[in-house]
Each structure stands twice: as C-alpha cells, then as structure tokens.
Amino acid sequence: MLNNILEEELIQLNVKADNWEDAIRKGTLPLVVKNKVTKEYVNKIIEIAKSIGPYIVITKHVALPHAPAEFGANETAIGITTLDRPVNFGNEANDPVKYLFCLSATDNNSHLEALAELVKLLENEDFFKLLDTSNSPKEILSYISTI
After folding, report:
1. pLDDT tens for residues 44-90?
2. Which of 12, 37, 52, 99 is the most exposed place for a label (fewest CB within 10 A)?
3. Annotated catalytic residue: which of 26, 44, 66, 98?
4. Which residue from 136, 20, 18 is spatially nearest to 80, judged by alpha carbons?
5. Looking at the predicted structure, is the pLDDT value of residue 112 above 70?
C-alpha cells in the first residue's frame, strides 16, 4: 500500500530548511506541485502546529506533517523529505527533525495500511541509513517496494 501512494517525484533528499515552517513548506511542495494537496492544506498544517504545538513530530527526528482532509487533501499520498541539516520543531523529546513524511489523506481510513507500513520502516535502522546516504529517490522507492 505505501508504494501505491508514494511516487519518485514525491521524494526529496538533503533539502535545506531554515526552520520548521520552512521545512514543512519545502517538504510538502512536491505534493502541491503534483496536486495531491492544495496550498491551503499546507497552511493548515502550519496553523495547527502554531496553535497546538508540534503534534506532527511523532518520534525521534521524524515529523508527519498532515492536516484534516477538508482543508485540501485531493488524493491520498505521501512524500518523503530529508533535511541536509536537522531543524527544531519545538518537541523537546524528539527534536531536531531530519525526516519528514508528508501525508495527504482524503478520508480517515484509506491510508491506515500505508501508515502501518511506514511505522515498520521507522523501526528499521537500515531505512534511515539509506535515507542518510542515498542521493536517489528511485533507490528509496525501490527499497520501500520490498517491504
């Protein structure tokens, strides 16, 4: 399922970001360009994070930027962005964030299988090593398709 909602064009490696908001905007940019989400969706992620805190930082060094579907999720998809330099999101336990998995879900259920697969990947040290050393989105996609 995960490789059904992930495309090579949605993977960005070693992106430069000045802060957490810049990281979210740059991390979600491929989703906007491919019309998976709207700019309003991206703005809502940031707005919610500003109002309730860094809810999107889900584990050490990992953020899962997302917002409710009604704010512009056009298609279920996920993008992967690695940052060249980690940035703080304001989550003391899990900062700084180096990996963003930007999620667009059009409903509350269709993406759950993909998220379960993502959780397995996040428990795999080899996956993070690959993210840190690869310069090829195709290589990342290929690795994910083997899970």
Report:
1. 999 999 999 998 999 999 999 999 999 999 999 999 999 999 999 99
2. 52
3. 66
4. 136
5. no
- 3-state DSSP percent of the chain in helix, strand and coil, to 5: 45, 20, 35
pLDDT at 118: 85
Q: How far apart are the first and last CA of the chain?
A: 10
Q: How confident is the model at residue 142 (pLDDT cuts 50, 70, 90)?
A: very high
Respond yes or no: is residue 61 known to be catalytic: no
Amino acid at 34: K
Please give the model's pTM, rounded to 2 decimal places. Answer: 0.93
pLDDT in tens, 7-34: 999 999 999 999 999 999 999 999 999 9
Integer Cα distance of 42 and 2 in angstroms? 21
Give the helix ranges, DSSP H, for 12-136.
Answer: 20-33, 39-52, 112-122, 125-133
Sheet holding 62-63, edge to edge: 11-15, 77-87, 97-104, 62-63, 57-59
Cα torsion through 23, 77, 38, 110, rounded to 10:
-130
Structural domains of the chain in order of their starting residue, each with its CATH number: 2-145 (3.40.930.10)
